[in-house]
Amino acid sequence: MRTAKIERSTNETQISIEVNLDGTGQHTISTGLGFLDHMLTHLAVHGLFDMTVNARGDLHIDAHHTLEDIALVLGAAFDQALGDRKGIARLGSFYVPMDETLAFVAIDLSGRPYCVVDAEWGMAPVGGIPTSLFPHFLESFSVTSRCNLHARVLYGRDDHHKAEALFKAFARALDIASQIDPRRTSIPSTKGTLTR
């Protein structure tokens, strides 16, 4: 079973996350941020990851610490569940349309964290979350999951649609990259290892 459970407690947030990479999309998510719950639900359902996310954060200040720390813990849980990454497809990409919006995400579970997000956002928050935090979520996830993640909103007008398309594309690309390829019997790298 490719599973992990990670807990993290600081003066700003208390977070517990469980993941099963070989799930069916079962999920229980409570972050205190309704729109983030919605995005993480997309990650579970469209990625077919079983996920339990329980988080309490200093939302009386703003959403930043809660969203960032959830992304960091979630990335660490994926890293742990992937183990030595032997046999995984490693690479995955996916386009997702959402009404007038089109988003694309490409992922390499290379062991080398790097993130590029190319998206234009309006000034207003979405669901109480500043739009600047959506790229920050992906950046934070890439650091602790040790993946190379490129995300792009090619076009769109509605920031809700942009965020939703981005998270759906993220889910599908991550599912493809993390799947076990039965033809692979070793770590998918010409080096013979995926760097830490």
Instruction: Supply the CATH architecture.
Output: 2-Layer Sandwich
Compute the CA-based radius of gyration: 16 Å
Could you describe the largest sheet, including whether it forms a barrel? 4 strands, mixed
Determine and state the CATH class: Alpha Beta
Q: Spans of 5+ residues with little confidence (pLDDT < 50)?
A: none
Q: Report the total helices.
A: 4
For the record, what is the CATH homologous superfamily label?
Imidazole glycerol phosphate dehydratase, domain 1
Task: Write up what this structure looks like.
The protein has one domain: Imidazole glycerol phosphate dehydratase, domain 1 (Ribosomal Protein S5, domain 2, 2-Layer Sandwich), CATH 3.30.230. Helix 1 (34-47) packs parallel to helix 4 and helix 2 (64-82) packs parallel to helix 3. A hairpin with a 3-residue loop joins strand 1 and strand 2 (13-20). The strands form two sheets. Strands 1-2-4-3 form a four-stranded mixed sheet, with helices on one face. The chain is built from four helices and eight strands. The protein is globular and about 50 Å long. The mean pLDDT is 95. The chain has helices at 34-47, 64-82, 133-145, 159-178; strands at 3-9, 13-20, 27-30, 50-57, 91-98, 101-108, 114-118, 148-155. It is an alpha/beta fold and 196 residues long.
